[in-house]
Specification:
By secondary structure, this protein is of the alpha+beta class. About 20% of the residues lie in helices and about 30% in strands. It contains six helices and 15 strands. The strands form three sheets. Strands 14-11-12-13-10-15 form a six-stranded antiparallel sheet. The longest helix is centred in the first third of the chain and has 12 residues.
């Protein structure tokens, strides 16, 4: 049975304060003493893609960089119960019947077919876990809560209960799942905070910018408050990542998404850009030389203090030079002269 709402309001809110689990982990890191722990109660999951989908070719980690970092901008939603997968089948763009313990990139749309969130989901028994931008966690639960009453599913914002760590090139042992480029996502409960401490303080480290550059190279767009509800999945290249199933049947927004796919009528597409001088902010509208709208910045990754890469949802036929109002940022498509 699919659970589909009639109401479709989904309004992005500001990022909440750092959750309690961040504070508890930060306290351990600052304490500097990490007694040996015999606890093995920690969950590790890989940022990967379900066998149900196709994936872009593997990318390499620049200069053999390897290490770990805390991903404090991400949150965790859990869905528990015998109906959890069937409930989410009516909302997520992937086929929940094909989802297993290997995470798959996915999205949730509103009734207009615009993606309101993106992230990774995986399934273990009667639990489905969804990792997404923390700023969208409360909003997502509020959106789904009226319809959960008709399902044997309990949804929770479990961000406070976990430390979320990204790893690259560490080739961590099972139960870690390996992606082409070696990225991994560790979702550790409080019993695993000592493990988190070791990864973040005793092993090689990664910077946020290094993680963002690899994510951007994969063309993964993690929607946040400024970009939620604005784009069809195809505008974010989610179909290219295998994050949309066109065979699963009905889900919220499916009719619009399928129509756009079969007609080939998508007026905006995801394109790689380069920026200089100052980093554009997420959600910034870029302008063409004639002053008309050219597109929207949906992801950025600094490569030095004054230059970096970006992903832009670009309007069809838009040509540069491009500018951002009230910004010194210089933008151009990647590879343009």
């Amino acid at each position: 049975m699919l659970y589909r709402p009639v109401c479709t309001e989904f309004r992005a809110s500001e990022t909440p304060n750092a959750p309690a689990q961040r504070v508890r982990l930060d306290n351990r890191l600052k304490a500097g003493n990490n007694p040996a722990s015999a606890c093995n109660h920690w969950t590790m999951a890989m940022v990967g893609n379900s066998p149900q989908t196709s994936r872009t070719p593997p990318i390499s980690i620049a200069d053999g960089k390897a290490g770990a970092l805390a991903l404090d901008d991400l949150g965790v939603l859990t869905f528990d119960g015998p109906d959890s997968a069937s409930f989410l089948q009516g909302y997520l763009t992937i086929d929940m019947d094909a989802l297993g313990g290997e995470p798959a990139f996915t999205a949730m749309c509103n009734i207009k077919g615009r993606a309101v969130l993106t992230g990774y989901a995986w399934r273990e028994g009667e639990r489905v876990t969804l990792v997404l931008q923390q700023s969208l966690c409360g909003l997502t639960l509020g959106f789904l809560s009226p319809y959960l009453a008709f399902s044997k599913t309990q949804a929770s914002d479990a961000t406070d209960d976990y430390a979320i760590i990204g790893a690259m090139g560490l080739n961590l042992a099972p139960p870690a799942l390996n992606l082409d480029a070696g990225r991994q996502l560790l979702v550790l409960d409080e019993d695993g905070f000592d493990k988190a401490h070791d990864l973040l303080t005793k092993g090689p480290s990664l910077s946020t910018n290094e993680w963002r550059n690899v994510t951007l190279a994969q063309r993964e767009v993690w929607l946040e408050a400024a970009t939620s509800g604005s784009f069809l999945p195809q505008m974010l290249a989610l179909d290219e990542l295998g994050a949309v199933s066109f065979n699963k049947g009905c889900y919220l927004g499916q009719e619009v998404v399928a129509r756009a796919q079969h007609r080939g009528d998508v007026k905006r597409r995801l394109e790689p850009f380069e920026w200089k001088v100052s980093e554009p902010h997420i959600g910034a509208e870029i302008r063409r030389a004639d002053g008309h709208a050219g597109g929207v910045v949906v992801a950025t990754a600094p490569q030095s203090p004054y230059e970096g890469a970006a992903l832009v949802v670009l309007n069809r036929g838009a040509v540069g030079p491009f500018t951002i109002k009230s910004s010194t940022c210089e933008l151009r498509p990647t590879g343009a002269p």
